[in-house]
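[recover] target loaded
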C-alpha cells in the first residue's frame, strides 16, 4: 500500500515561517523607511528638494501589512503584495530558503514520530513524502528534510499539472491542504491533519498530531 505524507502543515510549519519572514523583511523594512523619512523632515539636512522627494516616496510607497487572519493557503489574500509577481518572487525565489528551508517542524517531535512510523510500517507499506512545490522551494524543502533527519527514501514534488497523477497513485494521503481535502478521488483515502486553515472542512478521517497517525491507519485498514 502506498501512503503519502504531505509536508506543509503536517511536517513543516510553513505558515509560521512565512509570517515571521514577511514581518521582518517587509513590514519592519517599511516602518524603517517611514522613520527615515520622518528624521529627514525634522533634521538639519531637510530642504525643499528633500520635501519633494519624500512626498513622492510617500505617494508611491506601498504598505505591507497583514490583511486578515489566515484561513486558507492563498497567503496573498491575507498579506498585502503589490501584485502576484511580487508574491511569487517573495515566496519561491527571494526568501524560499528562509521560508521552506529554515521553517520549524509542525510539532516538537514531528520527525521522531515520522521516523518511528517509517520504521514500523516500511516492511508492509511504501511511505512517500509528497509536496506542492515550485521554483527554489524544491531545494529548500530537501534541505529542510535533511536538516531534521527524515529517513523516508521516496520524495515526490507536484504542481497543478502533475498533482492528480501523483495523488491518484496513493492509497492513503495525510494532508492539511484544503485544496486536496476538498477533492474526491477514486481510490485515495484522505486523512486530514487539522490546522487553523482547514478546521471548517469536514472529512471522514482527521488527526491533530502525527502521534495519532498509526492508530488512524489501523482504523481505515
Amino acid at each position: 500500500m502506498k501512503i503519502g505524507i504531505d509536508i506543509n502543515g503536517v511536517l513543516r510549519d510553513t505558515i509560521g515561517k512565512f509570517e515571521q519572514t514577511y514581518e521582518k523583511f517587509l513590514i519592519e523594512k517599511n516602518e524603517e523607511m517611514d522613520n527615515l523619512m520622518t528624521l529627514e523632515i525634522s533634521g538639519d539636512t531637510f530642504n525643499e528638494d528633500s520635501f519633494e522627494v519624500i512626498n513622492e516616496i510617500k505617494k508611491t510607497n506601498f504598505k505591507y501589512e497583514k490583511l486578515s487572519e489566515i484561513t486558507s493557503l492563498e497567503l496573498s489574500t491575507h498579506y498585502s503584495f503589490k501584485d502576484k509577481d511580487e508574491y511569487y518572487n517573495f515566496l519561491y525565489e527571494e526568501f524560499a530558503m528562509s521560508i521552506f528551508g529554515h521553517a520549524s517542524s509542525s510539532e516538537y517531535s514531528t520527525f521522531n514520530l515520522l521516523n518511528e512510523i517509517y520504521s514500523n510500517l516500511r516492511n508492509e507499506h511504501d511511505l512517500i513524502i509528497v509536496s506542492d512545490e515550485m521554483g527554489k522551494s524544491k531545494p529548500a524543502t530537501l534541505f529542510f528534510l535533511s536538516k531534521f533527519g527524515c529517513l523516508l527514501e521516496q520524495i515526490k514534488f507536484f504542481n497543478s499539472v502533475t498533482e492528480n497523477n501523483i495523488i491518484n497513485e496513493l492509497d492513503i494521503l495525510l494532508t492539511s491542504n484544503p485544496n486536496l481535502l476538498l477533492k474526491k478521488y477514486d481510490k485515495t483515502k484522505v486523512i486530514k491533519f487539522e490546522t487553523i486553515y482547514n478546521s471548517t472542512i469536514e472529512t471522514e478521517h482527521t488527526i491533530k498530531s502525527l502521534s495519532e497517525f498509526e492508530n488512524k491507519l489501523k482504523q481505515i485498514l
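[recover] notes: Residues 36-42, 46-51 have pLDDT under 50 and may be disordered.
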